Amino acid sequence: MYFVFKGDATALPFAFLFGLIWGLAIFNMDRYIVSSINKSASTGKQLLQATPRILLAIMIGIVISRPLELKIFDKEIKERLKVTYLNNQRSKIDTLNAAFGNKYKIELAKLKDAKAQRDSMESAIKTDRQKLNFEIFGNKTSETSGIMGYGPYAKRKEAELKQREQDLDTLSTGVRKLEDFVDGRKQFDGLMSEKLYTSKQLDSLTSIAGFADRNSALGQLSIRPDGKKDVNTSLAITFIGLLFIFFECLPVFVKLMSSRGPYDRSVENIETAQMYESDKDKDYEITVIDGVHDTRVSTEINRRKNALNSN
Predict the structure, then answer these.
(1) pLDDT (0 to 100) of residue 212
(2) How far apart are CA 244 and CA 62, in angstroms?
(3) Residue ranges in the chain modelled with pLDDT below 50
(4) Please, is 161 exposed, middle or buried when counting C-beta atoms within 10 Å of its C-beta (0-12, 13-18, 19+)?
(5) Whole-prediction pTM value?
(6) 3-class SS string, the chain
(7) I need a labelling partner for 52 at 20 to 30 A (CA). Which of 17, 110, 147, 197 fits?
(8) Burial of 281 by CB count in 10 Å (0-12 exposed, 13-18 middle, 19+ buried)?
(9) How crowded is the C-beta side of 217, counted as CA atoms within 13 Å?
(10) Tell me, what's the pLDDT at 121?
């Protein structure tokens, strides 16, 4: 009950109050069902009488054991919740990126082509700049004369480089405009604000996780990250539940396994006496009703005869 009201300032008083009500209800139900099992009846009939309490005990055991399991595996549940929240956030970001890519497919394709062209041009300019330096400093290659000095070839090459650098500046400006446009669209669509959770954010999320998330994480503890079943954890969770189920079923099982004692015989005698008294009361009422009926019939007959004679 405390787990139900946890987080509220009045959690302890409410838990005590409802726990007391719940305990009294179960106690009286147990007392009625156990005491109503007829030990004089056959084993099958006794089991049939105890079946509702056994089914109720199974459900109560499962319900009561779950909060305890959540508390026992609290650390493991928090770690699993962190993994789940990270995976969900990553999936959300991937979904947003995929939707954004489909929405602005043309613009992204233009940006990609422009970047590729810019990178190619930068690489070519770098290579030509190196060749120009070789030509000026007289380094002999298959594309340079090997004559040191700033000759006509070097001047022409430098002029071409300046023109290409201007073209690169123009292209880079276009790339920046496209990037600014894409970044603006990402900001507008919420992609820039969606980021993976930090450790502090994950700790905060796990601390306020509700019952549904924690219960789901507890169920996932029985499965390893590789998809195989974690037998040890699964058995631990199962036996905790079975312990409470057995504890709830114990009064009924003790009653079923116990032999017929003085109390059962006393109850049977009382029931026999009450049934005999009820039968006698029935016979008494029937006899009285028959006598009254006969008297009423005789009286009515005489009344009608007297009426006829007077006429």
Answers:
(1) 84
(2) 7
(3) none
(4) middle
(5) 0.56
(6) CHHHHCCCCCHHHHHHHHHHHHHHHHHHHHHHHHHCCCCCCCHHHHHHHHHHHHHHHHHHHHHHHHHHHHHHCHHHHHHHHHHHHHHHHHHHHHHHHHHHHHHCHHHHHHHHHHHHHHHHHHHHHHHHHHHHHHHHCCCCECCECCCCCCCHHHHHHHHHHHHHHHHHHHHHHHHHHHHHHHHHHHHHHCCCCCCCCCHHHHHHHHHCCCHHHHHHHHHHCCECCCCCECHHHHHHHHHHHHHHHHHHHHHHHHHHHCCCCHHHHHHHHHHHHHHHHHHHHHHHHHHHHHHHHHHHHHHHHHHHHHHHHHC
(7) 17
(8) exposed
(9) 24
(10) 84
The pair of three-digit structure tokens given for residue 159, joined into one six-digit string: 């002029």
Total length of the chain: 311
**Joined tokens for residue 44:** 């099958």
Confidence (pLDDT) at 228: 83
* 61-65: Cβ within 8 A, 24+ apart: 61/241, 61/242, 61/244, 61/245, 61/246, 61/247, 61/248, 61/249, 62/241, 62/244, 62/245, 64/244, 64/248, 65/240, 65/241, 65/243, 65/244, 65/245
Q: What pLDDT shows up at residue 189?
A: 72
Name the token pair of 219.
Answer: 């169920």
